[in-house]
Design brief:
It is built from 18 helices and 12 strands. Helix 3 runs antiparallel to helix 18, helix 15 packs across helix 16 and helix 17 crosses helix 18. The radius of gyration is 22 Å and the shape is globular.
Length: about 400
C-alpha cells in the first residue's frame, strides 16, 4: 500500500508557472499557429470566402495541387545518424549572393486584397530575414513603393509579357531604376487557367459590393474596414476590373510569345534572368540555352494546367539535364520546411513559397508573414539536424526517396 501525504507549498511552488498573458490579439492568435496549416485555418476564419478561395484554390478539379502536396507528403527522408549537427548553416547562394535561408518569397498577385498591408509587409519580412522577394506584375503596390519599403532587401520583379509591349518594357525599366536585381519571366500563362472557385464566388478585383459580399462583410468586418479605409486596390496601369481574374489575364497577356522573345527581354534587361513555369526537361534545357540564368520548376501552384507535371517529380531529371549551367528553383505545394529540404536534396538551389506566406499575411499582416517564415525556418533547421546534415550544401539525393 502506497503512503500518501499532502504536498507542501514549497513542493508545489516550482510547478506553478503561469503562462504570460499576450495582450495583443494578433500576437495571441499567431502564437497558437505551429504549422503553415494552422496559419491557413486562421486565414480561412478571418478572410472573406472569395478572397481565401482565390489564394487557396487551383485550376479545374485542383488535381495538380493535390498531387504536388501528396508527393511531398509521401516522399521519404533518409537520415544519417551520428553526425555533428551542433552548428547549422541554413544559408545558401542564390544568383551569386547569400540568402540566409534556402527559400525566397514568390510573386503573388493582388496581395493587398489578402491583407491591407500587402506587398510592403512581405518585402519587409524578406529584408529582416535576409531572403529575396519577387514582386508580381499583378502586385497591388508599385515597384517604387516596394523598393522604398525595404531598401536593403534583395528584390526581383516578376514579369508577364503584355500584349502592349511598351507597357511591359516600361515595367522592366522602372524595376532597373528602382534597384531590382533580377527579372523573373513567367511563361505558363498564355491564357488563364480555369479557376472555378473564383467563378463560383463571383470574384472580382476589387470585390464588388453585392448582396452576397455585404452579408460576408458582417462575418469579416475588420477585413472590409481595412479594404474600404485604405487606398484603393490598383496594379500596373489598371485601377478596376469588372470581370474575373481569368478574364483580366486573357485581356492583358500576350499568347504569341515564343522562345525568341527572350532576346527582346535581354535587349532591355542586362541583369539576371529567371524563367518561371518550366514543366518539362526539354523546356528547361531550351530556356537555359536561350540565356536564362535560372529556371523555376512550377505549374503555377496548380492554377493553370490541371494534371500538369509535378515539379518535385521532374526535378532530378532537370538537374541532370542542365547540370550547373543554371540555377533551379522549385515551387508548388510547399507547406513545410521539410518540403523545402527535400527539394534542395533532390537538386534545387532554392524554393519559392507563395501560399505559405499569404496564409500568414491573411492571419496577421506583417507579423503573420514573419510567423510563417519563422515556422518554415524552424522546420528546415530541425529537419536538417535530424537528417544529420549541418549545412544546406550537404543535402543530396541520398537524403530523399520518392515513391
Amino acid at each position: 500500500m502506497t503512503d500518501r501525504q499532502m504536498p507542501k507549498w514549497s513542493e508545489l511552488k516550482p510547478l506553478l508557472r503561469p503562462k504570460p498573458i499576450t495582450v495583443n490579439p494578433t500576437e495571441r492568435r499567431l502564437e497558437k499557429a505551429l504549422t503553415i496549416a494552422d496559419l491557413r485555418a486562421i486565414a480561412k476564419r478571418r478572410t472573406p470566402r472569395s478572397v481565401f478561395d482565390y489564394t487557396d484554390g487551383a485550376a479545374e478539379a485542383e488535381i495538380s495541387l493535390r498531387r504536388a502536396r501528396r508527393l511531398f507528403a509521401e516522399m521519404e527522408l533518409q537520415p544519417s545518424i551520428l553526425r555533428d549537427v551542433s552548428e547549422l548553416d541554413l544559408g545558401t547562394s542564390i544568383l551569386g549572393g547569400r540568402s540566409e535561408l534556402p527559400f525566397a518569397f514568390a510573386p503573388t498577385g493582388f496581395t493587398r486584397m489578402m491583407n491591407h498591408e500587402g506587398e510592403s509587409a512581405v518585402v519587409k519580412v524578406a529584408e529582416d530575414i535576409g531572403i529575396p522577394y519577387a514582386l508580381s506584375t499583378m502586385g497591388t503596390t508599385s515597384i517604387e513603393d516596394v523598393a522604398a519599403a525595404a531598401p536593403n532587401a534583395r528584390k526581383w520583379f516578376q514579369l508577364y509579357v503584355w500584349k502592349d509591349r511598351d507597357a511591359g518594357e516600361d515595367l522592366v525599366k522602372r524595376s532597373a531604376a528602382a534597384g531590382y536585381e533580377a527579372l523573373m519571366l513567367t511563361v505558363d500563362v498564355p491564357v488563364a487557367g480555369a479557376r472555378l472557385r473564383d467563378v463560383r464566388n463571383g470574384f472580382t478585383i476589387p470585390p464588388s459590393l453585392t448582396a452576397k459580399t455585404v452579408l460576408d462583410a458582417s462575418l469579416h468586418p475588420a477585413w472590409w474596414a481595412n479594404l474600404l479605409t485604405t487606398r484603393p486596390l490598383t496594379f500596373a496601369s489598371l485601377s478596376t476590373w469588372d470581370g474575373t481574374v481569368a478574364e483580366l489575364l486573357d485581356k492583358l497577356f500576350d499568347p504569341t510569345m515564343t522562345i525568341d522573345d527572350l532576346n527582346w527581354l535581354r535587349s532591355i534587361w542586362d541583369g539576371p534572368l529567371i524563367v518561371k513555369g518550366i514543366q518539362t526537361v526539354e523546356d528547361a534545357r531550351r530556356v537555359v540555352d536561350a540565356g536564362a540564368d535560372a529556371v523555376v520548376l512550377s505549374n503555377h501552384g496548380g492554377r493553370q494546367l490541371d494534371r500538369a507535371p509535378t515539379p518535385l517529380r521532374i526535378l532530378p531529371d532537370v538537374r541532370k539535364a542542365i547540370g550547373s549551367d543554371a540555377e533551379i528553383y522549385l515551387d508548388t505545394g510547399i507547406m513545410s520546411g521539410a518540403d523545402i529540404v527535400a527539394a534542395i536534396a533532390l537538386g534545387a538551389d532554392a524554393c519559392l513559397v507563395g501560399r505559405a506566406y499569404l496564409y500568414g499575411l491573411m492571419a496577421g499582416g506583417q507579423r503573420g508573414v514573419a510567423r510563417a517564415a519563422e515556422i518554415l525556418t524552424k522546420e528546415v533547421r530541425r529537419t536538417m539536424a535530424l537528417l544529420g546534415v549541418s549545412s544546406v550544401a550537404e543535402l543530396n539525393p541520398s537524403h530523399v526517396r520518392l515513391p
